[in-house]
């Protein structure tokens, strides 16, 4: 064992031990879509006197935190997002009506003198000193009260408690305790009211909450003029129920919001859906990982089995990183974790295929030297392909929101962990094995001393590709035209995330067909609702603007036919947020194209970069067109899948062009079509084997993941198949056509020309041929 191998082995063991310790001692932080609950996004709005900036949003956040804490929700999460948005996560809250009613109330509490009562329809006189109209509000019985200016605000209230008083008609009251200074104002206010005779409207004090009179009691006849009530506190009566009294006390105690807030997004997920998603993802991960491990073991024998061990190490390391960093696991994030398992084999496949080439090119290579050369030659392709995936993950994080952002974090952690497992763990294991004489002497055991089946078949057939590159571009153009036809003819079914509205999924105790549900809801006044079936016979209802009370009425109407009706999933997106998300999605796609183009132009020739980006756009259009033809929704989860397809497409193109760059730099006089054919044939085994590893995972997700992950897996399945095609038959022919047009000189080994960076001399072909 060499010193470098020993260092890698020690590092791998140390990281694995730490990862195992974290995995066993820490619990993952589950998002609401996995544990059940309600998530709200509140938008702070400018008031007449206060602007909704970062400072006022922070003050609003503190008031909301007190209110949520008083609701008794276990482990609520409140965070500010941007300048004027607040994210509220309430685990286990399935009916958001109470939470929304308490959280969203401005709760501006004020105490006013009553100047008199007016008959219905009468207008109050203007104030003689200012000309302004007095405040006119109805009391509890509907009598119009003419109120004077505010004498005491809610800021003077020290505490508020709900209690049952048997002597009161309604029983429930709210007791208020004042701060010292505010108590004096209360005594003055009630003392002035006591100067009027008993029964006079002016002997009343109006308590107003959010411009609504909640109580306007008469000052007791025993209170003398200018004496007033004691400054310690008072009681609010008004025939409250227990719930109304507690909510009122909660609002008053929490204080007034500095600025009003509006619910622009609300998502509710039932706990059963979250548990089912976790189970389905776990099954998909186990089955997909087992199939991938078996596949690479069959292809690469002993070294494939060692790569499977490294794959298991990757799973432990990435899971520990997610738990240790406190990353919230969402449903898309869980899918990203599972998907990264399939992508983790890519680096190992690249190395093993390079080592196979080395074994075929050298007369009598040692297994260790072939493996070392394989790691060295594959490093540039591994680095470039993973960086492009990290770029896509970064775009998901910075331009996505909610679960999509979580998917970007999970994908990035998965990419980094996969590189460590391949370049450290797998390398240490395979180098130790390569030092064994038994492994070296038996090519059928180690798995890389003999060419694989795909490589042998290609050597025998030697297909003549790229003699007419324009023909391949025509085929790609036809595929794009079919996809665009689907977009034009069928249209894109944008989800509520991009259009605004509400999407609710219900589970009923009795089966209800779509037509019956549609007619029932139409009779209840929801004629514009779109009703479809969801998984396991559930009913999915999509409407435009619908508040929480409207959703409750909708569910009640559906229960007349379906019996006990349980809300499984609920998504509410405000129109302003929908416009913003749609704009951000387009920005994300445009930035993805520009960033990938810039990176590839730096790392390769500009012609290669353009060919790769054309292939990427080709893949995006076809995936969107396929969803248009299939009538599948395009939502935030689809956007996550689409940006992943972008990363995968560029990943494939990078591997092919990395080989083109290497072969062309070593054979400058060979025509580019010949070089491209050799590069494609040499990289096809890697493309096939890596694609199969990802397909195993995605098929498992599509079959076992349920409706929540089916569209995600379907988009990636289409994207990987199309991306594999385009990296060979769109990107490469496109680069060839561009090179013919520009007639640029080939790259010089060890130098960089103005059109791209050439490889170092140690990346030469060394005579490797197919």
TrEMBL record:
HAMAP family: SecD_B, SecF_B. InterPro entries: SecD, SecD/SecF_arch_bac, SecD/SecF_bac, SecD/SecF_CS, SecD_1st, SecD_SecF_C, SecD_SecF_C_bact, SecDF_P1_head. Residues 742-770 are annotated as: Disordered. It comes from Streptomyces stephensoniae. The keyword Protein transport applies. The chain crosses the membrane at residues 6-24, 302-322, 334-352, 378-400, 406-429, 470-492, 585-602, 609-630, 636-657, 687-706, 712-738. This is Multifunctional fusion protein. Part of the Sec protein translocase complex. Interacts with the SecYEG preprotein conducting channel. SecDF uses the proton motive force (PMF) to complete protein translocation after the ATP-dependent function of SecA. Keywords: Cell membrane, Membrane, Protein transport, Translocation, Transmembrane, Transmembrane helix, Transport. It is a multi-pass membrane protein. Residues 58-114 form the Protein translocase subunit SecDF P1 domain. Belongs to the SecD/SecF family. SecD subfamily. It is found in: Cell membrane. Pfam families: Sec_GG, SecD_1st, SecD_SecF_C, SecDF_P1_head. SUPFAM superfamilies: Multidrug efflux transporter AcrB transmembrane domain. Residues 261-430, 558-737 form the Protein export membrane protein SecD/SecF C-terminal domain. Its main location: membrane. Forms a complex with SecD. Part of the essential Sec protein translocation apparatus which comprises SecA, SecYEG and auxiliary proteins SecDF. Other proteins may also be involved. Forms a complex with SecF. Part of the essential Sec protein translocation apparatus which comprises SecA, SecYEG and auxiliary proteins SecDF. Other proteins may also be involved. Residues 149-259 form the SecDF P1 head subdomain domain. Coiled coil: none annotated. The keyword Transcription does not apply.
């Amino acid at each position: 064992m060499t010193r470098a191998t020993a260092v890698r082995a020690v590092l791998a063991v140390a990281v694995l031990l730490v990862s195992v310790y974290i995995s066993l001692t820490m619990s993952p932080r589950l998002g609401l879509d996995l544990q059940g609950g309600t998530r709200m996004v509140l938008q702070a709005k400018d008031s007449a006197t206060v602007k909704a900036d970062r400072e006022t949003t922070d003050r609003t956040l503190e008031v909301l935190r007190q209110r949520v804490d008083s609701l008794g929700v276990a482990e609520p999460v409140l965070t500010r997002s941007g300048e004027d948005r607040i994210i509220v996560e309430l685990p286990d809250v399935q009916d958001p009506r109470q939470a929304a009613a308490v959280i969203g109330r401005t709760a501006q509490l004020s105490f006013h003198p009553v100047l008199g009562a007016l008959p219905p329809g009468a207008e109050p006189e203007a104030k003689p000193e200012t000309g302004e109209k007095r405040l006119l509000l109805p009391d509890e019985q509907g009598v119009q009260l003419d109120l004077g200016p505010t004498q005491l605000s809610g800021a003077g209230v020290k505490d508020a408690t709900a209690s049952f008083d048997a002597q009161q008609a309604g029983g429930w009251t709210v007791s208020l305790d004042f701060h010292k200074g505010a108590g004096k104002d209360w005594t003055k206010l009630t003392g002035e009211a006591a100067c009027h005779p008993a029964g006079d409207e002016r002997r009343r004090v109006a308590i107003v909450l959010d411009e609504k009179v909640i109580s306007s009691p008469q000052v007791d006849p025993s209170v003398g003029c200018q004496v007033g009530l004691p400054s310690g506190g008072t009681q609010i009566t008004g025939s409250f129920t227990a719930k109304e009294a507690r909510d009122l006390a909660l609002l008053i105690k929490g204080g007034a919001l500095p600025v009003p807030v509006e619910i622009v997004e609300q998502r509710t997920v039932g706990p059963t859906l979250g548990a089912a998603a976790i189970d389905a993802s776990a099954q998909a991960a186990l089955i997909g990982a087992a199939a991938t491990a078996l596949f690479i073991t069959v292809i690469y024998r002993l070294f494939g089995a060692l790569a499977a061990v490294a794959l298991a190490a990757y799973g432990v390391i990435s899971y520990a990183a997610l738990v240790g960093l406190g990353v919230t696991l969402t449903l898309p994030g869980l899918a990203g974790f599972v998907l990264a398992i399939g992508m983790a084999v890519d680096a190992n496949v690249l190395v093993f295929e390079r080592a196979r080439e080395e074994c075929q090119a050298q007369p009598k290579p040692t297994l260790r030297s072939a493996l070392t050369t394989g790691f060295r030659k594959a490093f540039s392709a591994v680095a470039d392909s993973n960086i492009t995936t990290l770029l896509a993950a970064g775009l998901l994080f910075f331009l996505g929101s909610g679960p999509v952002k979580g998917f970007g974090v999970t994908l990035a952690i998965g990419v980094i962990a996969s590189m460590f497992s391949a370049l450290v763990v797998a390398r240490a294991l395979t180098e130790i094995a390569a030092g064994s004489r038994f492994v070296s002497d038996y090519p059928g055991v180690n798995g890389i001393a003999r060419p694989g089946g795909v490589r042998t078949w290609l050597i025998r057939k030697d297909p003549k590709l790229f003699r007419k590159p324009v023909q391949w571009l025509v085929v790609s153009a036809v595929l794009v035209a079919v996809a665009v036809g689907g977009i034009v003819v069928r249209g894109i079914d944008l989800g509520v995330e991009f259009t605004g509205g509400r999407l609710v999924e219900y589970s009923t105790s009795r089966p209800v067909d779509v037509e019956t549900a549609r007619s029932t809801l139409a009779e209840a006044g929801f004629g514009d609702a779109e009703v479809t079936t969801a998984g396991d016979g559930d009913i999915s209802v999509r409407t435009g603007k619908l508040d929480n009370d409207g959703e409750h009425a909708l569910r009640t109407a559906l229960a007349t036919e379906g019996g006990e009706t349980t809300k499984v999933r609920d998504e509410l997106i405000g129109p302003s947020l929908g416009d913003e998300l749609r704009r951000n999605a387009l920005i994300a796609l445009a930035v993805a194209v520009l960033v990938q183009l810039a990176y590839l132009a730096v790392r390769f020739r500009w012609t290669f970069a353009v060919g790769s980006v054309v292939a990427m756009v080709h893949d995006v259009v076809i995936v969107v067109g396929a969803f248009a033809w299939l009538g599948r929704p395009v939502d935030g989860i689809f956007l996550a899948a689409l940006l992943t397809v972008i990363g995968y497409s560029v990943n494939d193109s990078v591997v092919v062009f990395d080989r083109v760059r290497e072969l062309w730099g070593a054979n400058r006089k060979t025509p580019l079509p010949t070089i491209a054919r050799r590069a494609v044939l040499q990289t096809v085994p890697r493309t096939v084997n890596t694609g199969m590893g990802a397909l195993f995972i995605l098929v498992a997700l599509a079959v076992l993941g349920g409706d929540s992950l089916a569209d995600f897996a379907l988009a990636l399945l289409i994207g990987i198949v199309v991306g594999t095609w385009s990296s060979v038959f769109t990107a490469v022919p496109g680069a060839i056509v561009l090179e013919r047009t520009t007639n640029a000189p080939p790259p010089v080994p060890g130098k960089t020309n103005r059109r791209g960076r050439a490889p170092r001399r140690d990346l030469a072909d060394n005579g490797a041929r197919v």
